[in-house]
Amino acid sequence: MKRLMLGNEAVARGLYEAGCAFVSSYPGTPSTEITEAAAKYPEIYAEWAPNEKVAMEAAFGASLAGKRSFCGMKHVGLNVAADPLFTIAYTGVNAGMIIGVADDAGMHSSQNEQDSRHYAMAAKLPMLEPSDSAEALEFTKLAYALSEEFDTAVLLKMCTRVSHSQSVVDTGERADIPQKPYEKNGAKYIMMPGNAKRRHPVVEERTRRLVEWAETAPVNRVEEGRDHKLGIITSSTSYQYVKEVCGDTYPVLKLGMIWPLPEKLILDFAASVDALTVVEELDGFIEAHCRSLGLSPTGKDVFPAIDEFNQNLVAAKLGQPATVGPKLDEAIPARPPVMCAGCPHRGLFYTLAKNKLTVLGDIGCYTLGAVAPLSAIDTTICMGASVSGLHGFNKAGGGQGEGKTVAVIGDSTFIHSGVTGLINVAYNESNSTVIILDNSITGMTGHQQNPTTGYNLKGDPCTKIDLETLCRAVGIRRVRVVDPYDLAACDAAVKEELAAAEPSVIISRRPCALLKYVKHPGPIASDPDKCVGCKSCMRIGCPAISIVDGKAQIDNTLCVGCGVCQQLCKFDALGSTFS
């Protein structure tokens, strides 16, 4: 049956059709929907893990038990899972195992633009890279076949444009894959130095065999062109741009297996054209391989190594006419990212900014606390870095030092990798204050459950981590909960905990304003007769508040009635309920 699917949905369909039985992931844009879609198939057990390392280890365990498994993450999540990744490359698998990773060229929702292809080469694991939804489905099924044929986990590399674009796929039936028996094999699975030393040659031989497979694999194909003055080697979305711009003008070598790369296939293709160019986003990965074969293609000397490509960029670099579309004459006003109206983090960030604190931030929608007018965050590095960084900052007496510096971290991020930093704070007796922004959900990636919410991926009730008890269990004696809508309580809590002579945790607790079960009082209205135009209400950066003709105005389609702005108005101009 032909269906229109997102690339991520197509991967999930491929998991289903290939007989995958176990999925464990951590949400991260642009990979999240793979696991959400997989969870809709009752034949697949699917879960959110606390972090990507746990997800990969769980997927390996399921493979070891004999069931086909999958774990999914975004590119920076693969950093978190790198430890098991490199060792699983040595052990191999029992049943097939796929590691899905989605890169984010253009950094639409990421803190860096790293290229995951380097992980495949470094870990010596095969990597497939689909260019549309149809390939996403077929490559997923192929990945399991390769995994079991070559005794290896297989990386499936997606990217934002493939993950979040729709195209037609041909769906099939689910394969009946019997569970493989587990056989005890310490020499294969116990990676003590003596065993690992014997496994490394196995990995090298596997790579050699995979190169042979890549030479004639249907996923690596030559598409003929009319003009052999130029040959183009490309993959993924870059292939789509090349075909849209050039059609069948030039021969194209389209690579679906991005590691290990073929050798003879590339050399033969290069010999068939007068000049060679490599079109690939981010790093010159394919280009470097071509140069290692003695070729001299153009690549990153022509195409940029930053940001994602588009049709017009590719056309310009290849000397082809660009597409000229209709232009909008009106200037579109800038729309900077901002926390939602009623966001529970706003009141806490206002308090931190008002007290002129140094704030080490973390990964989540609360990173928007860095945006003006709040401008309340000083750093954002990676998941959990705020807590660990705060400890080092205070121990080193950095900047304002103890008493003027805090860390902020979300509930899901705290479970992901913040709790180990807090253990470090307690164990090494760092006089540091950590603020956990508990909005009862994983907000940034679209409201996924996590171990603190009390519900699993499918929405069923499950064990709920008690943050207060957890913090006390690791050695923090001072733990308090505040409502971020209460500015006075937030201010008192921050000042008192910073003044304490021991580590402390403040839990800023209120559910995300966008959760369906959250009931709001409703919008408030401004009174122009009482408003003096002091703009105090504008200091919280709420998108529901604007100044019109010198007076505060409330957008009743956005306002939820959280009351934070009312606490800033000294003239009671925001005190009435909209009617």
Strand order of the largest sheet: 3-2-4-5-7-6-12
Helix tally equals 19
Mean of pLDDT: 95
Helix content: 25-40%
Question: Can you give a write-up of this model?
Answer:
- The chain is α/β, with parallel strands linked by helices and 579 residues long.
- The protein is 34% helix and 17% strand.
- Helix 1 crosses helix 7, helix 11 packs across helix 14 and helix 15 packs across helix 19.
- The chain is globular, with a radius of gyration of 27 Å.
- The model has no long low-confidence stretch (mean pLDDT 95).
Describe, in short, the structure shown.
The chain is α/β, with parallel strands linked by helices.
What attributes does this structure have?
579 residues; alpha/beta; 7-stranded mixed sheet; 5-stranded parallel sheet
What is the topology?
Blueprint: E1 2-6, H1 7-17, E2 22-25, H2 32-38, E3 45-48, H3 52-64, E4 69-74, H4 75-80, H5 82-91, E5 97-103, H6 117-123, E6 127-128, H7 133-150, E7 154-159, H8 160-163, E8 166-170, H9 186-189, H10 193-216, E9 221-223, E10 230-234, H11 236-246, E11 252-254, E12 257-259, H12 264-271, E13 275-279, H13 285-292, H14 311-317, H15 345-354, E14 358-360, H16 385-395, E15 405-410, H17 411-427, E16 433-438, H18 467-473, E17 478-482, H19 487-499, E18 504-509, E19 524-525, E20 545-548, E21 551-554, E22 576-577
Parallel strand pairs: 2-3, 2-4, 4-5, 5-7, 6-7, 10-11, 10-13, 14-15, 15-16, 16-18, 17-18
Antiparallel strand pairs: 1-8, 6-12, 9-11, 19-22, 20-21
Helix pairs in contact: 1-2, 1-7, 3-5, 11-14, 15-19, 16-17
